[in-house]
Amino acid sequence: MVSTSFSEAVTGLDGRKFCSYRVGGPIDLALMPTQYESAVEALKAIDTTTPLTVLGGGCNTLIASRGIRGTTLITKRMLAVEVVDLASGRLRFDAGVPLARVATTAQDHGFSGAEFMIGIPGTVGGAIAMNAGAMGQSTDEIVEGAVVYDCASRQVLTLDAEALAFSYRHSSIDPQRHVVLAGYFRFKPGDAQAIAHLMQQSLDFRKAHHPKEPNGGSVFKNPAPGHPAGRLLDELGAKTWREGGARISELHANFIVNDGSATSTDVLRLMLKMKTAIEAHYPFKVYPENRFVGQPSDEEARLWAQLHDRPLPSSDLEDHAG
Ligand SMILES: Cc1cc2nc3c(=O)[nH]c(=O)nc-3n(C[C@H](O)[C@H](O)[C@H](O)COP(=O)(O)OP(=O)(O)OC[C@H]3O[C@@H](n4cnc5c(N)ncnc54)[C@H](O)[C@@H]3O)c2cc1C
Fold first, then answer.
1. Beta-sheet strands, E only, within 64-206
2. Domains with residue ranges and CATH for the chain
3. pLDDT per position as a tens digit, 156-181
C-alpha cells in the first residue's frame, strides 16, 4: 500500500462512480494524481506485494461486485497537453486526457487523424491499452509511443509503437504491470471542412445507434472481418434478452445497458448467454472486449473464466481477474 499521506489518495470510494456501467463494489484505496510527477512519485511508493489496478475513464471496464482491494491508480485527472513539434504534427497527451479532447486539439491545429476519437468515451491511457478504434481507424495509426511506468522494474520507460505491439483492441500494455502516463501522437495536416464533417458524422451515428443508459460500449470483439458481433446477436433476437438489471440495448445488440439495478454478476451472466448463443449458431468464437477488474465473487470468477474458455477457477481465486 502507498503511504496515505500522498495528497491525492482517497479511501473507500464507491466503485460504481468509476465505471461507465455503474456497477461494482468499493475501491479500498484510490490514487488520483493530477500531474505526471505525482503519479510517478505515488507509483514508486506503492507496496508491490498488494495488487495494483489501473483505471482511466472506466468506459470499457466492469468492476467486480466485491470491489477492488489493494491500490487503484485512476489516471483520468492527468490532463496535460503539450505541443512537442507543431511542424511535424507531434503532440503529447497525459494519460487522463479525454479522447474527445485529443480529437478537438488536433482539429484546432488543423491536423487530421484523430477524428474517430471524437465520440469514444474514455482516456488516452485506456485508448492506448485497448487500441481503441472506430470508423475503420484505430489508436495505433496516430500513436508514436507511450511513457509508461513499469511496476516490475519500477522505472519509467518510453515504449515506441513497435514495443506497444498493437493489434485489434489490444496492445502490449499489461494493466497489472504497466501504467501509461502519457502518449506521443503524430497527426497529418488536414482539410478543416473534411475534419469537421467526419467528426459530425461520427457524433450523429453514435447519437442514433448508441444507448444513453449506463453501458460499457461493445461487449465482445468482432469475431471475424465482415461479421460484427452486434449483427450476429441481432440475428439471434438478442435485443430482448436480460439478466436481472442488465439488458441488451434495443439500439445495439452488442451493448449491455444497466437499467439502474444491475450488478456486475448480472452483466457477466448476460455476456455468457450472448457468447453461448453466438457460438451455438455460428462458426465463430467470441471473446470480451470489456475488461473485468477487482475481487470477483466465486460466480463472477467462474463466469469470467467461461467467457475466455479458460478452465474454471478453483476456490483459491486470483485477487485480480482480467
Ligand atoms: C458508449 C460507449 C461507446 C464506445 N465506443 C467505442 C468505440 O467506438 N471504439 C472503441 O474502441 N471503444 C469504445 N468504447 C469503449 C471505451 O470507450 C474504450 O475502450 C476506451 O479506450 C476506454 O478508455 P478508458 O480510459 O475508459 O479505459 P478503462 O475502461 O478505464 O480501461 C480499459 C483498460 O485499459 C487499462 N487502462 C486504462 N488506463 C490505463 C493507463 N493509464 N495505463 C495502463 N492501463 C490503463 C485498464 O486497466 C483496462 O484494462 C465505448 C464505450 C462506451 C461506454
1. 68-74, 81-85, 90-94, 111-112, 133-134, 137-138, 143-150, 155-160, 178-186, 188-189
2. 9-74 (3.30.43.10), 81-194 (3.30.465.10), 213-289 (3.90.78.10)
3. 999 999 999 999 999 999 988 999 99
